[in-house]
Write a structure and sequence with these properties.
Arc Repressor Mutant, subunit A; Rossmann fold; alpha/beta
Length: about 220
């Protein structure tokens, strides 16, 4: 199963993309958010295998989100739908992400090609993770980095530590709320706070953190 977060403010195009992709494979689950801010929230709540966006969102919002994630060391695969015959747009994409091996630009409405690239990038990224390269980058760096992470752990409250532990065990926000007898909204607030304290940005990073720091 490949879980794709689609950043698009046009629900009609989202439904068309979902329907067309289903003709080529049955393992892609496409979920919609309408802004980069909503995408950041979703990345904290769930684990996604790929981001899909386009260059027609206001202010290049989708592209700027991906640029921000890359700056923070998040290498989740992404596909940008673009008018590739538009030289200005293509130059923008190449300039912003020329050193990134987990992205590609695909022409609008070329759904078979889109299906191919989603599978190819996700498979490549999963192999990358299996090789422990992400864990090496995040947790096997300098002794100073390890000390910094340990100090950050000490700033967590008891409840935040409990929630991080449950994230490391693969629990969803709803499952955490049920287990701790607190509201879903309270769980999300705790997650945002502990992410800020630890300097992490996605649920996948939180799981890696919990495992490597031997919390779970």
């Amino acid at each position: 199963m490949i879980k794709v977060l689609h950043i698009n403010n046009d629900r009609g195009h989202h439904e068309l993309t979902k329907a067309q992709l289903s003709q080529f494979s049955d393992d892609i689950v496409l979920e919609l958010v309408d802004s980069s801010q909503a995408a950041l929230v979703a990345l904290k709540d769930e684990i996604y295998d790929c981001l899909l966006t386009d260059d027609q969102l206001p202010g290049n919002e989708g592209l700027e989100l991906i640029k921000s994630l890359r700056k923070d060391g998040n290498y989740i695969p992404f596909v940008v739908l673009s008018e590739l015959e538009d030289e200005k747009k293509q130059n923008f994409i190449e300039k912003a992400y020329s050193n990134d091996e987990f992205n590609v630009a695909v022409d609008f409405f070329h759904f078979e090609i889109l299906d191919y690239w989603i599978h190819r990038l996700v498979d490549k990224y999963r192999q990358f993770l299996k090789a422990d390269k992400l864990e090496i980058d995040l947790f096997h760096s300098s002794p100073e980095k390890i000390e910094e992470l340990q100090k950050a752990m000490q700033t967590l409250t008891k409840r935040e530590t409990e929630i991080l532990n449950l994230i490391g065990l693969g629990r969803s926000n709803l499952e955490i709320a049920d287990e701790l007898c607190i509201s879903y909204k309270t769980v999300k607030n705790h997650i945002y706070n502990l992410f800020a304290k630890l300097g992490i940005h996605t649920r996948a990073e939180a799981i890696h953190f919990a495992i490597r720091m031997k919390i779970s």
